[in-house]
TrEMBL record:
PANTHER family documented for this protein: PHD-TYPE DOMAIN-CONTAINING PROTEIN
Name the record gives this protein: Integrase catalytic domain-containing protein
Organism, as annotated: Trichonephila clavipes
Coiled coil segments of this chain: 70-97
Keywords: Coiled coil
Organism ancestry: Eukaryota, Metazoa, Ecdysozoa, Arthropoda, Chelicerata
């Protein structure tokens, strides 16, 4: 905090910020003494420092304004110089011409469109890339018309030549009369290139600072864009601006269909918040999305967890300004089966779940309910809910399980009595799998007659320091997302983003994932690179393959394999899902002679897949991870049954209890109120109130001097 580097103007601003009276004709030394001897300088150093910073910023802004004006004058001077050069050239042409009659030369020159076009282009700014600058473009063009005295019949032709290919679409529907009228053609061009208010608002939201511009230029561009948007919306006062901001916020919360409808209906104008809400309610009611469907109907498009949360949330908070067209439908909130005051959807009804599949189907038919969402106001043909997991148009509660045919599966009790060895059967003597601590893996024990190879590849992954490291990846077209193990992410030192998402596995198993990273992958020769979002899990799968495999073939020597150790058990660090799987494959296929193996070409090399004969495996790994739901429930049960130990009260706890007993009271509304406890006396805070009041007064003075506010 130094006053020595400040000039006279800066010292005056600092004194005004500190509410000091500046005498007329005061010099720098007098201003410094006035500030140093003030109470604020002695007691509140932060206030003085903020005043100095404000003074420096104010002087800097004034300097920038003057530089901007100077730059504008330079541009005007350059334009005048160009006009002067053009006039000199024209004068020289007239003097050096062999034509004796000057009037004939002037007439021929004025009627020469090419000459006029070149001269007008010289005096006109280039065609702008941003639509906000077209008004400035036409101002410079009309000024050039006036300087060059362009005849009226040539203005339209010159304008179309300057715009070029930009007006190809416009020329399709323009009449002959409009092509010969400059004013009408100008209005059509402005209307063609002017954006809709929604496009202007989207451009404002997506605007980013360019590398070639400063933050002052970026701020000016944003201000110009927003002012143009307000101009399109006819916003002229603060109240209209507030209503516009609220309406835009509501529009951002709408789905795509409803947003498109509202944009078309409001046109150049905009709906006020209450009008917009009313129009949305009317649209939803006309589409059949009545109140009980919006707030109570469970959609199969979302998970069960989503349905429960949304149902409780919407039932608890119903908008006050909802349209009256919804009120007559409140009776449909009750369960069709229970018919009591309990509000729940039919698919969550305990009594309905106790029915057999045949009884459920008959009940849905008799009550004329939708087979997918169980709503009486919907039908299968227009229902937007998801199909069953069997891909047929019905709810999963109405799914008939398939009957098992043949002898492909055998009960465990009769396994020893079967003479014929099945292709796939459960084994009593199968090796048990014991998972590690804090991990649960779903493992199916089985006896296989042959073994299918899973697709693996050695890929390059970029770490935090942009160095490439080699890891083993599993290519799985049945996974919707890509996964990375926690160990691999730690080795790469990647920044993990905190998320909370649910992964569904086999047999309704699920797990919660709390981390996501951006991973850059590549093949060995760097000809293929991609950046993927991957979920971080503790472990993707067990070793693949389970045991070392003997491959009796010499194809190793002829092709480049994606994983040269595909037959050796190894851990999986990454899983590449369906979003990248088919992008990795190439059309080449090689069938190994006298074998069921198949080589599939990919960006990483040839992937070995297919079946292996005479492999007696006793364990099949499904490669899934799920939560320890049972262990968690047991842990909660144990905690409930535990005998609580007496709480040892320390000195602070006793003081808090005594303070609560002496100071608390209950209001008429039933709330308990207690005075704020303090460890130290309030006097230790000093005169903070006086300092805060001084800063408030300084802020008011600063706002009062601002002409814009």
């Amino acid at each position: 905090m130094s006053l020595n580097k400040l000039g006279k103007d800066e010292l005056k601003i600092v004194a005004e910020e500190l509410n000091l009276t500046v005498p007329e004709g005061a010099k720098i030394a007098g201003l410094k003494n006035l500030i140093v001897n003030s109470d604020a300088y002695k007691n509140d150093k932060e206030l003085v420092q903020s005043a100095i910073d404000y003074a420096l910023a104010e002087i800097k802004n004034k300097r920038l304004d003057s530089e901007t004006k100077l730059e504008f004058e330079r541009i005007k001077l350059a334009q005048l110089q160009k006009q002067l050069e053009l006039a000199n050239i024209q004068k020289n042409l007239i003097e050096n011409s062999d034509i004796r009659n000057p009037s004939v030369f002037e007439t021929a020159d004025n009627n020469n469109v090419e000459t006029l076009l070149k001269s007008v282009k010289t005096l006109t700014i280039p065609v702008p890339s941003r639509v906000e600058s077209y008004n400035l473009f036409f101002q410079s063009l009309e000024k050039a018309f006036k300087i060059k005295e362009v005849p009226e019949q040539f203005k339209c032709e010159i304008l179309l030549n300057i715009l070029g290919e930009r007006v190809n679409n416009l020329l399709v529907h323009v009449s002959e009369e409009e092509l010969n009228n400059y004013s009408k053609l100008k209005d059509l061009v402005l209307k063609e290139f002017s954006p809709t208010p929604q496009e202007c608002y989207n451009r404002f939201q997506k605007a980013q600072k360019l590398s070639s511009e400063s933050y002052v230029q970026f701020a000016s561009r944003l201000c110009a864009t927003f002012e143009y948007y307000c101009q399109l919306r006819n916003v002229n006062d603060f109240k209209s601006l507030c209503e516009l901001i609220v309406s835009d916020k509501i529009m951002n919360t709408l789905d795509r269909e409803l947003m498109s409808y509202m944009n078309i209906k409001q046109g150049e104008k905009y709906f006020k918040p209450q009008e917009l809400g009313r129009e949305c309610d009317i649209y939803l009611s006309s589409k059949g999305k009545i109140k009980n469907e919006i707030f109570s109907k469970p959609l199969c498009e979302n998970s069960k967890r989503f349905n429960y949360n949304k149902q409780n949330k919407f039932n608890a908070k119903i908008p006050r300004d909802a349209s009256n067209v919804f009120f007559s439908e409140l009776k449909n909130d009750k369960c069709v089966l229970c018919k009591n005051n309990v509000v729940h959807a039919l698919q969550f009804c305990p009594q309905f779940k106790m029915f057999s599949v045949n009884e459920r189907v008959e009940f849905v038919k008799n009550n004329r309910l939708c087979f997918k969402c169980f709503s009486p106001q919907c039908s299968v043909s227009r229902c937007r809910s998801k199909n069953c997991f069997c891909s047929k148009p019905h709810n999963k509660l109405l799914h008939y399980p398939r009957e098992r045919k043949g002898n492909s599966f055998f009960p465990l009790q009769t396994m020893t009595d079967v003479n014929q060895e099945p292709r796939f059967a459960f084994s009593v003597n199968a090796e048990s799998f014991v998972p590690k601590e804090d991990e649960t893996q779903i493992v199916a024990t089985a006896c296989f007659k042959n073994k299918c190879l899973l697709s693996t590849a050695l890929i390059l992954v970029k770490d935090k320091y942009s160095e490439w490291q080699t890891f083993r990846a599993l290519l799985d077209s049945g996974s919707e997302t890509c996964l990375i193990s926690n160990e691999c992410a730690n080795k790469l030192r990647l920044k993990t983003e905190r998320i909370n998402t649910l992964i569904s596995c086999l047999n309704d198993a699920s797990m919660v994932v709390n981390g996501c990273v951006k991973v850059a992958i590549s093949n060995q020769n760097k000809s293929f690179e991609r950046e993927l979002d991957m979920l971080v899990v503790k472990k993707i799968t067990d070793f693949i393959p389970q045991k070392a495999l003997e491959i009796n073939s010499d194809f190793y020597n002829f092709v480049e394999l994606a994983d040269s150790k595909f037959n050796v058990p190894g851990k999986i660090d990454l899983l590449l899902g369906a979003n990248i799987f088919y992008e990795l494959l190439k059309p080449e296929r090689i069938k190994i002679k006298d074998s069921q193996l198949l080589l599939v070409n990919s960006v990483f090399g040839y992937i070995v897949t297919g079946n292996l004969d005479s492999i007696n495996e006793t364990k099949v790994h499904c490669g899934l991870i799920r939560d320890e739901d049972l262990n968690k429930n047991l842990e909660k049960f144990w905690k409930l049954e535990e005998i609580e130990e007496p709480i040892v009260k320390n000195k602070e706890r006793l003081i808090c209890e005594e303070h609560y007993a002496n100071t608390h009271f209950r209001t008429k509304e039933g709330k308990y109120v207690v005075s704020m406890p303090l460890k130290k006396e309030p006097s230790c805070l000093g005169n903070s109130k006086d300092i805060a009041l001084k800063r408030l007064g300084s802020l008011w003075n600063r706002l009062a001097r601002d002409k814009i506010i």
